[in-house]
UniProtKB/TrEMBL annotation:
InterPro entries: DUF247_pln (IPR004158). Pfam families: DUF247. It comes from Sesamum latifolium. PANTHER family: BNAC04G53230D PROTEIN (PTHR31170). This is Uncharacterized protein. The lineage of its organism: Eukaryota, Viridiplantae, Streptophyta, Embryophyta, Tracheophyta.
């Protein structure tokens, strides 16, 4: 097959346009879709949000639109409370972050720049105000449906920690810093987020977590809670010698029970590595999901 001279020029131009569009260094995405082999008929719904979409992967799904209206309500209430007439300064800040934020997503989605910025604005403000309302009750609306029904709060905690349901943390942090005042020293994004997920912190106090957490490397809220869960493990590993441990396969719970082993909850729940086997009893920390 031959390419005529005019067609060759077009191909050359197209290739160079693609090459020029590549970043100087490969981007490192941090937010992924769940692999298709994990999404079978039995487990497919486990990875999807129940009532709240965050980020672009589940944006626009019809059954999640009720919460979408509440996002607008939260934004409107914030502007009224701060006596602001426009979202202009927040939109401009997000426009500057749009390309960087888009690169955080490993998989494709169908949102143009305007829709992507609007998504970040609504989702970011909703999460920030949700965390504030959770800690500071006087800020809530009396008729806020989220805090009138514990089931909704439980669903939100589930949805906000889904792998596919994330915003880059630097987006949240930027919006939070733009809305932060000096009136309340406890008005800190990570502190409020950890309080919102308090039941998932393995009985670790927020202050204890903050002193041990590397804040600058947080990718998103799911990553934040993952880092909290891994703190005891990381400390346990750091205290080990350089010698390789001998790993052996362990039977399933069913197999261990058939062998006569009993299971009990560990007395302390602040360390997932605190697993002890004494006198035929395996004590394991409780993990709340």
């Amino acid at each position: 097959m031959q390419i005529v001279e005019g067609s060759a020029d077009t191909v050359i131009i197209d290739i160079h346009r693609q090459l020029d569009g590549l970043p100087s260094t490969p981007s490192k995405p941090t937010i992924y879709r769940v692999d298709s082999h994990l999404r079978n008929d039995k487990w497919n719904d486990v990875y999807d949000p129940e009532i709240l979409s965050v980020g672009p992967y589940h944006y626009g799904i019809l059954r999640l639109q009720n919460m979408q209206q509440l996002k607008f309500r939260y934004l409107k209430r914030y502007l009224k409370h701060r006596n602001e007439q426009s979202v202009e300064r927040y939109v401009l800040a997000l426009v500057h972050m749009e390309k960087r934020a888009r690169k955080c997503y490993a998989d494709s989605f169908d949102l143009d720049e305007n829709a992507f910025v609007m998504m970040m604005l609504l989702d970011g403000f909703f999460l920030i105000e949700l965390f504030r309302y959770s800690s500071f009750k006087h800020l809530r609306d009396a008729d806020d449906p989220i805090f009138r029904h514990e089931r909704i709060l439980s669903q939100l905690r589930h949805d906000i920690l889904l792998l596919e349901n994330q915003l880059p943390f630097f987006v949240l942090n930027q919006l939070f810093n733009m809305t932060k005042t000096d009136e309340n020293p406890e008005d800190d994004l990570i502190t409020l987020a950890l309080r919102f997920f308090d039941g998932m912190l393995l009985n670790l106090s927020v202050s204890r977590v903050l002193t041990r957490l590397h804040v600058k490397i947080i990718d998103h809220l799911c990553g934040l809670i993952h880092d909290v869960w891994c703190l005891p493990f990381a400390e346990a590993i750091s205290h080990k010698s350089n010698e390789r441990d001998k790993w052996e396969n362990i039977n399933s719970i069913t197999g261990l029970r058939e062998a006569g082993i009993k299971f009990k909850r560990a007395k302390e729940d602040d360390n997932l590595m605190d697993i002890k086997f004494v006198n035929g009893v395996l004590r394991i920390p409780q993990l709340i999901i």
